[in-house]
Design brief:
By secondary structure, this protein is α/β, with parallel strands linked by helices. The chain contains eight helices and six strands, in the order βαβαβαβαβαβααα. Strand 1, helix 1 and strand 2 form a beta-alpha-beta unit.
């Protein structure tokens, strides 16, 4: 299927590894011109070599207060316009119940506030061109305990749904993808091979952990003109791990 993405432009946050890197590779293969951002320039340069395309590399700390505006400006300068925003940066933040306000603030900033700010920094130029795609890589809705990232991702889902209702008339869609267990450095660091094998057998209906390209395939579709009638959706890619029915 020709997704009609060739010649489009995209900004991907957290693109140096894991899911973000997989998304960058998939979009580049579809002919999308990319701006990629992360804290590790050498990883972004390696990504550029692998794509075989010239990327706009933006090395920036996403937690800095000026990050959304600086990243948006750099992407627009490098690409001319941003058709597609993939909000991928973030990370799990499990807390004890006596977690400090600073811990909560950091989790919400990293996993919700910066994504929201970056999207709004790019909205005007999408509205002016009557076309845009915002795809948020979020998280599950079944927290095992207190986790700042889960709360922030729930806020992302609510914000994205509300925004989708405001910008649909401008040809802009806003969707969210909560991944399941997707193999990455973070997964390999946090879960032993024994636990991954046990969970694959007992809790994941398809019987294995996912790969970054499993997320990237859906991102490419949602970013394409073919997905024009899908917006405000939360679409898990988890091999059936989640047990809720909707």
């Amino acid at each position: 299927m020709d997704l009609g993405l060739s010649g489009k432009t995209a900004l991907i946050t957290g693109a140096s590894a894991g899911i973000g890197r997989g998304i960058a590779l998939a979009l580049a293969a579809e002919g999308v011109r990319l701006a990629v951002t992360a804290r590790r320039r050498e990883r972004l340069q390696a990504l550029e070599q692998e794509t075989g395309a010239k990327l706009k590399i933006i090395e920036y700390d996403f937690m800095r207060e000026d990050a959304p505006q600086r990243i948006a400006e750099a992407a627009l300068h490098g690409l001319g316009a941003v058709d597609i925003l993939v909000n991928n940066a973030g990370g799990s933040r499990p807390f004890k119940i006596d977690a400090s306000e600073a811990q909560w603030e950091e989790a919400l900033t990293l996993n919700f506030t910066r994504q929201r700010q970056l999207a709004h920094a790019l909205l005007d130029q999408m509205i002016a061109r009557k076309w845009g795609r915002i795809v948020n890589i979020t998280g599950k809705s079944e927290p095992e305990g207190v986790n700042g990232a889960f709360a922030a991702k729930a806020a992302m889902h609510a914000w994205a749904k509300g925004l989708s209702r405001e910008v649909g008339k401008h040809g802009i869609t806003v969707n969210s993808i909560p991944p399941g267990r997707i193999l990455s450095e973070q997964i390999e660091r946090n879960y032993t091979p024994e636990y991954r094998a046990w969970q694959s057998e007992h809790e994941i209906p398809v019987g294995e952990y996912g790969k970054p390209e499993d997320i990237a395939n859906l991102v490419c579709f949602l970013a394409s003109p073919r997905a024009r009638y899908i917006t405000g959706a939360v679409i898990p890619v988890d091999g059936g791990l989640r047990r809720y029915q909707f």
